[in-house]
Amino acid sequence: MHTPRLLLIVMICLVLAASGCRRSSTVSEQNKPSQIKIEPRSGKDEPPTVIFDIKPSDSSGASAPFELYDCTYQAQGKTAKFRFVLKQKSTFSASIEGKFIAVAGSDNSVLLEDLKKALDAKEILTKSLRIAELPFDAILLDDKLSRTPEGIFSDTPTGDWMMIKVFLPKGGDEGELFLNLNLALGKGEFSMKDSDYGDYLLKEFAKVL
Description:
This protein folds into 2 domains: about 5-30; about 50-205, no CATH class. The chain is of the alpha+beta class. The protein has an 8-stranded antiparallel β-barrel with strand order 1-2-3-4-5-7-8-9. The chain has helices spanning about 5-30, 110-120, 200-205; strands at about 50-55, 65-75, 80-90, 95-100, 135-145, 155-160, 160-170, 175-180, 185-190. The radius of gyration is 22 Å and the shape is globular. The chain is built from 3 helices and 9 strands.
């Protein structure tokens, strides 16, 4: 006598469960780093990224608690040189602290021009007082990523890219941008997070890159 009612309840439960699975899957897909476009863009209205050469520095020993990198950007006959340090705050944390380090003899004129486009900065940059270091906080968004021809990061298949979001100044968030690294290729990349940060970031980078 209760069999039809029981079947109806079971069917409702199955529909609700299936709906919940679909909803959970959708949220997961939206949060995957593969949905973030970081590759140099081809659209007319989209700023490019700035790609530079990177290699682990000979100055950092294998036992050092941080990673030091030497970076070079060459364009239009000009060579900009800078370094940066990355240090994981704790063993099981994605939080990172670091700093950009000035290198003597760097010509950052073309690099700053290209960063202005990449960060969508609007203000005219005036001559900045140079500083030795620019500390920052960061988060490792993901690693072992590959990148499609359309510029989408993906964890399937795996690859050699890591995505880092940088916050400036250290302890604040007046400026944010993506710092993407592929040590296997020897390439690093600055990419815009939001155009609202462009003017602040360019002014800060002019002091140290």
